[in-house]
From TrEMBL:
Cofactor(s) required, per the database record: Zn(2+)
Gene Ontology molecular function: metal ion binding; metalloendopeptidase activity
Signal peptide (residue range): 1-20
SUPFAM superfamilies cross-referenced by the UniProt entry: Metalloproteases ('zincins'), catalytic domain (SSF55486)
Record-given protein name: Lysine-specific metallo-endopeptidase domain-containing protein
Provenance organism: Corallococcus aberystwythensis
Keywords: Hydrolase, Metal-binding, Metalloprotease, Protease, Signal, Zinc
Keyword Signal among record annotations: yes
Source organism phylogeny: Bacteria, Pseudomonadati, Myxococcota, Myxococcia, Myxococcales
Amino acid sequence: MKLTCLIVAALVSIPFHASAVEAIDIKLTSKVAKFPADVPVDLAVTFTNVSKEPVRILGYQTPVVDGIQADIFTVAMERKPVDYIGRLYRRDAPADSDYLTLKPGESISGIASLWDNYDLSVSGTYAVQFKTELLDARMGRGTAVSNVVFLDIEGREPPLDPDDLDDEPQTKIVNGSNEKWKSCSSSQKNALIDARQHALNYANDSYDYLMAGSPVTRYTQWFGAYDSARYSTVRENFRKIRNAVDNETFKFYCDCNQSNAYAYVKPRKEYKIHLCSGFWPAPMTGAGSKADTLIHEVSHFRVVANTDDVQYGYSANLSLASTDPSSAIRNADSYAFFSAATPYNPYNPCAPTVTSHTGAPITAGWDGANCHVMNVPSGLTAFVHNNAYYVNALPGTYCPAPSGWDTANCYILPYPSWSTSYFVWSGNLYLTPGPGNACPAPSTFDGANCFVMPLPWGSTPFKWANNLYITPTPHCVIGGYDGAHCLVGTAPASRTAYLWGSAFYYGH
């Protein structure tokens, strides 16, 4: 069979109701079967209403209105799907204006450019099929598919992105971070600076919540029933989102005029975010805000969480969590809505407490940049190990009864010649008894051995010059002795402990 015979396959009828009263046929066609590396790979997609009633299709889920605006094709080479590299938008739940209506028998078509939107870097035969959800939610959900076409495509790199052809956007330094702009007014720049700070607050709060390991309402509402593997994925994704929002240089492009979208990114174009007309009137915080839109878009980047757009809108995302948790954890809007759900208000960057050596909490204070835990007393050597704070122990002079300080160690008793050994058992110091179960004072026979005294933590018994001693307990000015050093406390699991100057801190 020749390849050209496979270009246009039979139409596929997609019933969306059990009664099949309404249906749509989707045909995918190509003028040629072979595409040299310098030729665009453009396909025509035609939608025909073959029912007797009007049918609505979601415009941005087709290439009819403005080309490919979502991952609406299955493109595979040797049965291995290739990456979608096109735009990923943040949108509200579909409005009436987002739909196209087809009368009975009516057809509409659009041109889909695969080269701009899918990874065609490897030469070979590609199988292409239109496959997505198309119809109005009121008609019932269903997956619409076209015929499959097979195309011989010579490998090529993606076409040059207009973002890369522009002059370097103007740079403005804000709080030590770089924001870069293109086509943004002063008021838009200020709004984005504020939105990024609120997005960081959201990301910090979300990560702290997930590190606490309490998968209660907030998690299950947006990501579904608890599963340890899914929970770990969400937590790790928020760590990456937080680090990106906090540390990376972002390029903001105020050049998208789509009123039904907030923003878009291309997942391989790291930290370039295009803001659309729907972004500017949105509130600064809350669900569907400027701040959670940045969370949504940052999550899309391949080097961050590599999320998709499975569902848009508050209600649809709640439903997704309850019915399909595996999809919810890869859905960008789920991360956005989770981040804006009952965060600290205002956000307290030092809310997670340090756990002291006794288990009691130590509250840190915000110094404008990081969380100050405490100053280290002068004369001590401080260090951080395994995200915990330590200082050195000082030589001790305290000797618990019945021992006594002899200016060097803690003297207990003359060592009897008939005792064969001393030993420690269950934290107590013992001697073996003499004839007739004799025990030298102040030790006493306990029915088996001579009980001498409880041995303090960090103290060591020894025999010297026919006397029994213990070493004095090392002294901790702060913290508690752990056998080597003085443990002061452990930083929150979601933060990084560090020493700066003569004080303990953790990062925000």
